[in-house]
Amino acid sequence: MPRSNQMLMALVVFGVVLAGCGGGTDAAKTVAEEEDRYQMGEPIDDSTYALIIESEYNGDTLTTANFQASILNFIQQAGAIMDEAQRRRVRQGIAEEFIRRHLLLGEAERLGIEADSARIEEQIDQIAFQNRFPDRAALEEALAGQGMTLDSLRSFLKTDLPLQMLQEQMAEAAPEPTAQEIDAYRREQAEEVWAQHILFQMPDSAQKAGVVEKAEAVLDSVKSGADFNEMARRHSEGPSARQGGDLGYFGRGDMVAPFSEAAFALADSGDVAPDLVETQFGYHIIRLLGRRPGALMDSTQAQALMMRDRQHEAFEEGYRQLSLKAVIHVNPTIVDADLNASSEG
Fold this sequence. Notes:
Layout: H1 3-17, E1 39-40, E2 49-55, E3 58-63, H2 64-78, H3 84-111, H4 117-130, H5 136-144, H6 150-171, H7 179-190, E4 192-200, H8 208-223, H9 228-235, E5 246-250, H10 257-265, E6 277-279, E7 282-292, H11 299-323, E8 327-330, H12 332-335
Parallel strand pairs: 1-8
Antiparallel strand pairs: 2-3, 2-8, 4-5, 4-7, 6-7
Helix pairs in contact: 1-2, 1-3, 2-3, 3-6, 4-6, 6-11, 7-11
């Protein structure tokens, strides 16, 4: 099977039939946000190709037909109506996944990483368990619905598992945290802030400019001394509007990352985030009301969480090094996504 078809199969199997089987890493988060993910070459003008990658592992091609089939399959399985911004993120995600698999599978092959039959059978059992299939017969039935068999799944896993094994190997470069680092992490994670916000929801991307303009006008009013509580009651579209946007105390992991980072970055009570904060819920104006220490987590749990983050960072750096060896050619009319822009949100 050509590698491009294997990658398309991977998207179908892991993104749809066996969602939740684990082992993958979000391609949108595999490189440092402050650096370009990929070196972009000359764009493609042949309508039969969506993307071509050139690397030390030879070239690979994503045809327009396979690319569009992946998009349609994803949207059908998602079962939701998507606006253009969401569709663009889907297109970007599929293109990035194709690139990611090319690089990781190529490196695994170069290093001679292979999955033996015992690991393949173990992975099949894990897939069945995590997708709540009572036995392999039920798994076979689900696979048949996608035109697959257990043998074709085994064939796929023989190619795909080395990718997971390589990721594990790359993550092993992460250093163990010291006792002092663990103690500092526990204190940092225990801290809680008290904040309030004004939320401006964005029903669809077509209304983005108008929403941002309104939100910035309110932010300017707050910066000029307008009463935050009153402005929240008048303008916020969140459930806390009646309480003046008061969210009470919360920890670092209690809110979505952009919101949490902005709130914890504020220094003193009364400080307002200087810019609008964009999250999946819309745009926020955030004001800090207070801070307090919280309960310290168990040191073993802290160490485990730190290692998880460090292993992810180690993989990110390893993948970044691989991506430096590749040149990506994109058909802009087909893919219509900036691969060097964050696809989160």
